């Protein structure tokens, strides 16, 4: 029993306030948990937290409703009917863990540890523990959609280019003069410690705002310059801006000469990518491109605030490379109010990857081909999801027989949901740990009830990777028979006599905090520690690259066989690359825009949030809607070569008449199981997990797809 639990039980009838950190998304807002008589009675923002200063978003305010929701998974269950039948029996934790350990042991012995795969969702408390357990088990095959499609392409690319991953200096004392928001809408989302609130505060202080987005978001309406880019053409736009900055000599000559490698090669290379060249590709006027490039280059400090939209097409690494050079060329690196490298307030997580032999590492699905995802260019190697699913379906290059899923609704969050379903149905054994029953969990053999964030101990170093602020997430209550994912891994590892992942969770947390000189228990009393920040760290030891400089011409990418300079490449399914397909599917589909009341596929069970957004909305221009007889609020079909689904039409002039924007991750917990409406409005019925992929990252196409529409009667 923790000291927090003792405090709660010792003050029965009184209210105890515990400091923690909200993880209903992975933004990291500091919170105060009010506990009375062993019950969580209120959750409010921590006014002392530098990340949110007392504020909470709609999702955070309903945390109590999440913890005590009547539909929470309450105890372990074993499937008794055929897979997907929705028939379950209650079992004990000992029965569940013993059966999982036994069946995994048999599969490991017969097919090898690589035949067991693990899947997880977005990067919160449990994500690193998934790969950690896999490494202890001996399998290199763990996967998370974001490792090829969200955030980690930026992480791995920036580490190769700069030696570190840069973050926006939102918690410093100097505000940015200019902020360019590219493929991200932080008004509606706040990932990785760059919360909705510190992003909003910086927005209010900035003198100039540039927004790159196909949609006229709230940010776009406030922008000085809105670049309404065609979905999937971000690389062309970024290269054209580099062309202007270099061609007009707007770059920081001192920083570039002292601290970059390959400038002359880059300058010669981008000479071909003029704004006039980019205009027909991007649908953005050449004059606007020049104006945006000049504004960004001529003011300092300037920030590039980017999001996962740039990582949703199969050329994401070179897109990231091009965009990352904008702050570099303008000298906005490691200065107050610019892009900064973190202070690493917590130690590197003990992933146990050292337990994998070279032979086991070589078996990582997709690792040999996609080196930035699963090989030498990866910060934490992961398996390639399409290759993993193929191994489930076809046994190629070897069979994957078991899949353990923690905190991921796979049928809604992997591309091409029909193919995902086919793959999961081929498994011999599947386990799913989650807060609620989902369409994915209904396919499992054993379902485990996971603890929600106020029910478990963890630490959060934010922004992610940088860890400039370290927050303690502490268990305040525990409902039903729920367990934290970390505890599940520890108990399974002990049952299976694995060589690691067996120590208590608190021991791992304490080991990560040694550099701060505090224990986890001391951290929870403080709530958070803000690490004193130092700018210009490169002045002492240079950048952590082979040349000691930021590599505009990447020696590491060249060494691995990839292009050392960023280049333009059209998405494989677009009006330009696939004109024959465009005859039948004439509109461009973009997906993934965030809804402020949900986090990806989560929270649709919560009445207060569902009231705010009952049904999915697809944005369509009024002229396009009129052509197809669609009125505001009508259900309309959206169809690609993979399938079709329907969402409600939201008419707006803030989108190009050639573009449709569909919301992602929709399912309907209030509809009948075991499917819960997953085939009704799920945009991943339309997305593409087939090749070609990003040659370095294995990224597939989630945006810039070709579609057609029609009114759904």
TrEMBL record:
Domain of life (superkingdom): Bacteria
Keyword set includes Iron-sulfur: yes
Cofactor(s) recorded in Swiss-Prot or TrEMBL: Mo-bis(molybdopterin guanine dinucleotide)
Signal peptide per UniProt: none
SMART domains tied to this protein: Molybdop_Fe4S4
Keywords of the record: Iron, Iron-sulfur, Metal-binding, Molybdenum, Oxidoreductase
Species this chain originates from: Paramagnetospirillum caucaseum
Name the record gives this protein: Molybdopterin oxidoreductase
């Amino acid at each position: 029993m923790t000291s927090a639990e003792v405090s709660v039980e010792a003050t029965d009838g009184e209210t105890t306030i515990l400091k923690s950190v909200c993880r209903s998304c992975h933004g990291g807002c500091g919170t105060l948990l009010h506990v009375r008589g062993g019950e969580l009675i209120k959750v409010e923002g921590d006014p002392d937290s530098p990340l949110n200063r007392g504020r909470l978003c709609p999702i955070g305010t309903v945390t109590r409703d999440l913890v005590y929701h009547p539909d929470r998974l309450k105890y372990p269950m074993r499937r008794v009917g055929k897979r997907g039948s929705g028939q379950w029996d209650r079992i004990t934790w000992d029965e569940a863990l013993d059966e999982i350990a036994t069946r995994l042991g048999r599969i490991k012995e017969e097919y090898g540890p690589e035949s067991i795969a693990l899947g997880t969702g977005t990067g919160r408390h449990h994500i690193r523990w998934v790969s950690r357990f896999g490494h202890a088990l001996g399998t290199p095959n763990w996967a998370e959609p974001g490792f090829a499609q969200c955030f980690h392409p930026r992480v791995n690319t920036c580490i190769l280019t700069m030696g570190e991953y840069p973050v926006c200096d939102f918690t410093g004392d100097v505000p940015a003069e200019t902020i360019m928001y590219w493929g991200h809408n932080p008004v509606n989302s706040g990932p990785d410690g760059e919360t909705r609130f510190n992003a909003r505060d910086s927005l209010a202080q900035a003198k100039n705002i540039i927004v790159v987005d196909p949609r006229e978001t709230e940010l776009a309406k406030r922008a000085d310059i809105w670049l309404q880019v065609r979905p999937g053409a971000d690389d062309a736009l970024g290269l054209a801006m580099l062309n202007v900055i270099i061609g007009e000599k707007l770059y920081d000559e001192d920083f570039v000469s002292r601290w970059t490698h390959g400038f002359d090669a880059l300058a010669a290379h981008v000479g071909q990518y003029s704004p006039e060249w980019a205009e027909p590709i991007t649908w953005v006027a050449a004059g606007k491109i020049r104006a945006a490039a000049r504004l960004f280059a001529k003011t300092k400090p300037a920030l590039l605030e980017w999001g996962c939209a740039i990582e949703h097409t199969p050329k994401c690494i070179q897109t990231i490379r091009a965009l990352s050079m904008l702050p570099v060329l303008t000298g906005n690196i490691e200065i107050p109010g610019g892009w900064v490298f973190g202070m690493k307030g917590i130690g590197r997580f003990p992933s146990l990857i050292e337990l994998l032999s070279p032979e086991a590492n070589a078996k990582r699905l997709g690792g040999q081909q996609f080196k930035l995802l699963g090989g030498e260019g990866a910060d934490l190697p992961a398996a390639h999801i399409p290759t993993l699913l193929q191994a489930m379906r076809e046994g190629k290059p070897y069979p994957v027989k078991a899949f353990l899923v923690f905190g991921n609704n796979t049928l809604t969050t992997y591309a091409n949901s029909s193919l995902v379903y086919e793959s999961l149905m081929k498994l011999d054994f599947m386990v799913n740990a989650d807060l609620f029953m989902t369409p994915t969990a209904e396919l499992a053999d054993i379902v485990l009830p996971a603890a929600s964030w106020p029910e478990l101990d963890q630490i959060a170093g934010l922004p992610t990777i940088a860890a400039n602020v370290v927050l303690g997430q502490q268990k305040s209550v525990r409902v039903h028979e729920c367990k934290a994912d970390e505890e599940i891994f520890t108990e399974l590892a002990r049952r299976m006599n694995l060589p690691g992942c067996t120590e208590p969770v608190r021991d791992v947390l304490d080991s990560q905090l040694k550099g701060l000189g505090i224990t986890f228990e001391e951290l929870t009393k403080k709530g958070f520690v803000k690490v004193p920040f130092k700018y210009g760290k490169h002045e002492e030891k240079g950048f952590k690259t082979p040349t000691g400089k930021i590599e505009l011409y990447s020696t590491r990418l060249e060494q691995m066989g990839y292009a050392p300079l960023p280049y333009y490449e059209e998405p494989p399914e677009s009006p330009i690359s696939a004109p024959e397909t465009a005859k039948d599917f004439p509109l461009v589909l973009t997906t993934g825009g965030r809804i402020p009341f949900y986090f990806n596929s989560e929270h649709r069970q919560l009445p207060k949030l569902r009231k705010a957004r009952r049904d999915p909305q697809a944005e369509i221009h009024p002229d396009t809607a009129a052509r197809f007889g669609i009125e505001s609020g009508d259900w309309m079909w959206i169809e690609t070569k993979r399938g079709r689904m329907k969402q409600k039409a939201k008419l707006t002039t803030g989108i190009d008449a050639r573009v449709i924007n569909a919301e992602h991750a929709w399912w309907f917990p209030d509809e009948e199981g075991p499917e819960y409406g997953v085939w009704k409005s799920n945009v991943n019925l339309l997305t593409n997990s087939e090749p070609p992929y990003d040659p370095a990252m294995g990224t597939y196409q989630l945006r810039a797809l070709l579609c057609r529409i029609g009114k759904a009667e």
